[in-house]
Amino acid sequence: MEETNAPVQFTDGGFIDFTPPKGAAVIIWLIGMLLVGYGVVNGFNAVLTGEVAAIAKGAIASVIGSMIVIVCTPTRLQVEYDKIRRSELPRDFQIRSEGSANKSSFWTGTYTDSPTTDDRGWVFDAPGPEYWDVKDKYSADHTGILTEHPSVIGTPQPATISAVGIFGTIIALYAIPATFVVVSVGIVLPWTGEEIDFVKIFMMFGPVTLSLIIAVTSFQTAKRMQATIDTPGWRTRISWPSPSVE
What's residue 237's pLDDT? Predict the structure, then answer.
């Protein structure tokens, strides 16, 4: 690979990618980790003692904690992309750094939303007008290889196992006993015609609702990760000589 001063060199993602978040998200992340730890230890002890209620309690804590960790844990590629954005300061990053902007027009019925973060936003800043070839705009780039070219920064590769895979497995393992116990108890509870019936309804239909939330969250996480991986490929500037048209 060619020597370069690029702020980040993409290499193999490794076997396990477990990158803790930064800032205030660490607090929420730690809460999720504590819930997972409590659920695993409590569930293991409950299995040894045969306490069904304790098994359900540990399973529920593990599932909720795993969901929190999945949402708060960034991938290594996301962190590296953010380093490039902060170093290169592309226009897209500068705009988003100033904060989100929501604009709407009553007369035209248009609405514009500019979020503070976007995994698909520009990673490198585009060259300014001083680098433009006005006479032959389709000719080869005279400045040489682009900064974000794969031959310069390497090809980003995700890790074999990520935090999503680890804690997603925990969710899958604990969701089955938790769902079985909660739904079974909800079915056994009698109808009283009072406010306590809400607990019965929640226990019978809550796991289904939670499963749908997990499915949607997992789908969105997968799309976000894929968009992050694809960013250098379909966002890279392209420059090549164009054949003359006769």
Answer: 46
* Residue 3 in this model has a pLDDT that exceeds 60: no
Residue 121 has pLDDT above 80, yes or no: no
**Is the whole-model pTM more than 0.90?**
no
Residue 164 and residue 70: Cα distance in Å, rounded?
5
Residue 28: its pLDDT value, please? 93
Output the pLDDT for position 82. Answer: 75
What's the rounded Cα separation, in Å, for the pair 76 and 70?
A: 14
Q: How far apart are the first and last CA of the chain?
A: 39
What ranges do the domains of the chain cover?
1-99+166-238
Q: Would you put residue 162 in left (φ > 0), alpha (ψ -120 to 50) or beta?
A: beta
73 burial type by CB count under 10 A (0-12 exposed, 13-18 middle, 19+ buried): buried
Per-residue pLDDT reduced to its tens digit, 127-136: 677 777 777 7
Between the alpha carbon of residue 13 and those of residues 142, 191, 239, the distances in Å are: 33, 54, 28
**Range 50-54, long-range pairs (CB < 8 A, 24+ positions):** 52/181, 53/181
Give pLDDT, residue 99.
58
Q: From residue 4, how far is each of 10, 118, 140, 147 by CA, in Å?
A: 12, 27, 20, 8
Q: Do 28 and 68 touch, CB atoms closer than 8 A?
A: yes
Pick from 69, 71, 17: which is nearest to 224 by CA? 71
For residue 202, what are its two tokens?
Answer: 């929640």
Choose among 173, 150, 168, 170: nearest CA to 222.
Answer: 168
